[in-house]
Amino acid sequence: MRRAEVERVLSRVGRLERIASRITGDDQSRAEILQVSRDFLDDLDPIPASVAAPLLDVSEPTVRSWVRRGLLIHADPPGGGLDVRRLYDVVVLVRELRAAGHNHDLLNKVWARLADQALLDRDDLRESLAQMRGGDGIPTDIDELERELGLAD
């Protein structure tokens, strides 16, 4: 698999995701565009570390280290290359971090971003945040709450 082919697909997926991000969350068109972007990624074969390294602008040993640490994952069956979707997510995050001037400790910074995104993808958290933005929250006095829970000193 040639790097240029992978780069072209990743670029197209990025463009689709940017278009989808400008559409409101509940619009069916947004969901369809995101599905098309995922389909593009699914059409790629697992990516060898030798192709992933220049996409991430890191060395092959760094790619292998990131695999050992779980940041990048092997596609099924293992050993055939890297999971394309996860690689895409990591490529996007690495490029965003570098554009913001963060060039050191990328592993931990990408992990933090992935963890944050996993939380934001939770339906219950999205619903709670929407309620807070809409002013539907219930004001709570922390001292009163501690007394009710039996935690007050």
Number of strands: 0
Low-pLDDT segments, ≥5 res: none
Fraction of residues in β-strands: under 5%
What is the subunit arrangement here? Answer: single chain
Q: What class would the helix/strand composition place it in? A: mainly alpha
Mean of residue pLDDT values: 86
The biggest sheet amounts to: none
- End-to-end span in angstroms? 65 Å
**Number of helical segments with 4 or more residues:** 8
Cα radius of gyration in angstroms: 20 Å
Q: What order do the helices and strands follow?
A: HHHHHHHH
Q: Outline, from the CA principal axes? A: extended
- Helical proportion, percent range: 55-70%
Fill in the keyword field for this structure.
mainly alpha; 153 residues; 65% helix
Structure description:
By secondary structure, this protein is an all-alpha fold. It contains 8 helices and no strands. It is extended. The chain starts with a helix and ends in a 5-residue tail after the last helix.
Question: Gist?
Answer:
By secondary structure, this protein is mostly helical. Helix content is 65%, strand content 0%.
Set down the secondary structure blueprint:
Blueprint: H1 3-21, H2 28-42, H3 49-56, H4 60-68, H5 84-99, H6 106-120, H7 123-133, H8 142-148
Helix pairs in contact: 1-2, 3-4, 5-6
